[in-house]
Amino acid sequence: MMKVKEVADLVGVSVRALHHYDEIGLLSPDTITESGYRLYSNENLSTLQQILFFKELDFPLKKIKEIISSPSFNQEEALSMHRKLLLEKRNRLDAMIRTIDKTISFTKGEIQMTNKEKFEGFDFSQNPYEQEARERWGDEAVDQSKVKLGKMSTEKQAAMGEKMNEIYRNLAGFRQESPASPDAQAAIKEWYDLLNKMGNYSLEAFKGLGQMYVDDERFTKNIDQFGEGLAAFMRDAMAVYADTNK
Fold it and tell me: How many other CB atoms sit within 10 Å of the CB of residue 73?
């Protein structure tokens, strides 16, 4: 048996995360002593390993709980699936790294690159948040988004990704201002308009998406790469925009 701090140190996750897994019924220790110590068994550690494999593949905790709690869940089958998906992820990352290396040589004038080569490794068909989006806002907006993206050329999809990054960077420059400021609202309107080029998001869905940026740590981590606190700022700005334009 291992105490929660020992498990945290062994695995590299925080004690807080383990407490959270217990609170939501995802991973509860086999034993809790009279003095309140959580004691994790080897079986608990095997379950934790499964959870972390799923997290690495961007599964939400709610979905992980649903999967591993299913009577039909098979650990060996799950491990085989993890291996297959991680290999696919590694292949995509390797392709993107090769593209980066080529692009570095291209910018130095050492090689020539075709437009197609500039976007090798990008794959917008892989969306780890698709199921969550379907659950929150229904199939229609997601299907419309996939249809629109699927009709775009690789170059246009990449341009769309760069436009998203440009808006993130622009908003990051305003995050010390009020989310209701004219500059922030002009930038968040660009974000709303861009999302509606890919799908059909109501003002209420737009506001809900902003909340998700803060509630889901994966969104927060990705968005805050452009500036600490950007996810929370976008949530507030999106709420102001939605409420103002109803």
Answer: 12
